[in-house]
Amino acid sequence: MMQSRTPIYFALMGVLILGVGIFESWNNALFVLNFGLISAIMALGVNLQWGYAGLFNVGVVGFVALGGLSVVLTSMAPVSPAWEAGGPRALLALLVAVGVIVAAIMAWKKMAKGKVRGLTVGAILIVGFFIFRALFDPAVAAIEAVNSAQEGYLGGLGLPVLLAWPVGGLFAAGAAWLIGKTALGLRSDYLAIATLGIGEIIIAVLKNEDWLTRGVKNVNGLPRPVPYEVDLQQSETFLNLMASIGADPVTGSSIFVKLCYAALFLAVIIGLVTLMQLALNSPWGRMMRAIRDNETACEAMGKDVTARHLQIFVLGAAICGIAGAMMTTLDGQLTPASYQPLRFTFLVWVMVIVGGSGNNWGAVLGGMFIWFLWVEVEPISIFLVEIVTSGLAEDSALRDGILDRVVYMRHLTMGLILLLVLRFSPRGLLPEK
Amino acid sequence: MDFLNALVAFTNFVIVPASAYGAQLAIGALGVTLIYGILRFSNFAHGETMAFGTMVVLLVTGLFQQWGISLGPLPTALLALPFGIAAAAALVLFTDKTVYKFYRRVKAAPVMLVIVSMGVMFMMNGILRMIIGTDDRRFADGERFIIRARDFKEWTGLSEGLAIRTTQVLTIVVALITVALLFWFLNKTRTGKSMRAYSDNEDLALLSGINPERVVMITWLVVAALATVAGTLYGLDKSFKPFVYMQLLLPIFASAIVGGLGSPLGAIAGGFVIAFSEITLTYAFKKVVTYLGPDGWSPDGLVQLLSTDYKFAVSFAILIIVLLFKPTGLFKGKSV
Amino acid sequence: MSFLSATKMTGGYGAGPDILHELDLTVEKGEIAVIVGPNGAGKSTGMKAVFGMLNLREGSVVLDGKDITTLSPQERVHMGMGFVPQVRNIFPTMSVRENLEMGAFIRNDDYEKTIEQVYELFPAVYEKRDQNAGELSGGQRQQVAVGRALMTQPKLLMLDEPTAGVSPIVMDELFDRIIEVAKTGISILMVEQNARQALEIADKGYVLVQGRNAYTDTGEALLANPEVRRTFLGG
Asked: Relative to the CA of C64, which of A34, A416, B29, C211 has its CA 20 to 30 Å away?
């Protein structure tokens, strides 16, 4: 699996990040590294689905967002007044909603085919919907009324934030199971549209269910798994350490925090890649690739292709969920409005394709490299524009106009890279075999 | 109980806007469905194609306004429409030549083309934003209303007003003309028939001497026209914002799939099904219910089934239901 | 020289192994020639070779005195060949009449007369002319498929198992139609699974085994040949 050029490419990637450190700042370099590692995990998730099973998931952004939600629900302290105002009622309403859906599915399965069945199921759903709304709406209003400037939501469970990472995986896995149960087995582009839809809906929920996520008001001040810069700057040991290597304690603290994150992320990535490599070289992994390469033959051999697909779809989504939780932890806040499909779905696809679909090392490399470009295309373009237009006056309208537009270079570049790789090297930087 | 006023309110807030929105979706979905039928892939760049054509219309409209050219009560954008179509056509033909053509030659799997179209989407997105930025722009001019709420109340003596905007009527009229032209083209002309033949059975079309590259080129031209018309109508009716066009992709795909991918008639039906469901389910029925209920009574809440923020959920739910129970869509589309 | 003479055809699909080995096929003007043989004998492949759908390493195809060995299938259509594939041989969502019009796509002259001729030859096609071809029965579809191929006014019509999957009655009807077509002066080359019935209407029969000519004779003689009867016609 590991090819001779793999270490070379990773070394080059390291050089690029060092370059950022040298030419910009070490803070920036670590920013690129940390987000690159998270992107690499997202790419691993999508690669699992696409590279190993040929499943076309365009709802990555939704699974990532669910990971973000898990951080809030796991680690934030519960807001007691809000719970008292409407917590139990809201939970009851949600239970009722689940019950109604289960009842409708049961009725559909148990009853004989015909008009009566359709009407019954319809009636269950409609009546259930109104009961749900009657319970839910007042609860939501009550919760959102509690200190709405700072809270206005239920908060979380107040558990350690690292716990949110596996929980994020579980959230995403649950959503993936639901969508997979309905849409897998459909044609590939139907699955694509279905996942596109679920992604949009998850984002809509995060943006609008203020009682859960504070919506566009964001949840700030998420707990951290690593020390705070301010605390470090007061710590005797840290100051001594900084003094001994002759570094500025303020910059040093920020770099130290980022290094802590990097260590955590590296641990997760090494764990994931190891597990995936073990799994993919096991009989299970071989079967998966066999299914991808010839679905019909495998079906004929008695393999339950849809069930295997469901497994891998759920696993891949879970990995995206973990990455989402990690990202929100790193950000320290949940900003539902920032989840854009272009950034989280399509960009991750570029990472997987460029890295080399079907190769985990490729996914990791693609994740880090494309993230690097996504961040650095803008400063590089600005730098180039400044050189090219250096002959123009400082306040030249043309120059300003170009500089204004340069921000969007990254979209153009990403598209161009994707197209070039697809056209001239469709197997990516690190091909499967 | 005031049935007439309830009906007027319902027409004003649901039927009129949903008809306009449905027509916009229908024309958008026609483009998607034609690409699917002829080139056999789901084009994720369709939203950007719409945005690109509309952007050119918007820019040319601005020029015309500067030069003092206008259509009187009608939006100047109508005059600019041909320029937008030409620009969009040039763009998609260029994309086809530089990007898609290669994959046709190597007979790539359809899902490959979908991924390729993602790359195209990214690039078009970048180009769009570089040219026009991300601001919200309005470019509808001319007479704003055909019927004003106040006038309607005066004429009819009803307490509920009915307002019909020029852009709404224009949308319907232009959509009707577009669809009529398209169907005439597909069903009556030799070229149109050869497109249908190619969509039906590629190998046999080749055997019959139909030139696939010509069919593909004409398809792109038609799609560019449809995309620009759909985008411009949407932009006139609401406003132009590149970001919104990408979001339209979901309802447009939903329309095309609900109607049956590859079926033009289905795309139109699908567009209206999606539009009416979206607007009906997210409309606050308080007013209508108040009119219908006993005198002096009115419901406590808004009587809104879903918040408007969940309109995507409606397209999505309908899509899933159709896929589960009738995978080929309402009008039998392609199952390949 | 025969109207169609394909001689010493050797080749296979793409870069794959040779399927045909020095295969000869000739058809005279207005004659019905039938290719029969066991499964995998290369019957359809032989016909596709005549139509230019695979790469011949050796051998030549001459139609009406012109060497067409290097032409593409589309160019052979221009040269006067008509081909009816075994499956997917109609445009299902187009009307029967439109199917015929598409058959005449390469013609720039007035083809109304040819449509009339097809209608005369296949009354069922005339009856269903406004219906979508996909809605027709198996036998009717085959008639539409043949009608479509006739629209280019071919000199040689090739049919790949036209009676596959239709009932015996429909098969007889189809064979009758094919005889009618041949009577108009069109040469017919046809691959058939129903060897006995096909040889009954054939002027000439080719029995293929493993991509080679095994027996070649008139249909009647092949039916009478005890060896052929025992091995290929089931006694």
From this structure: C211
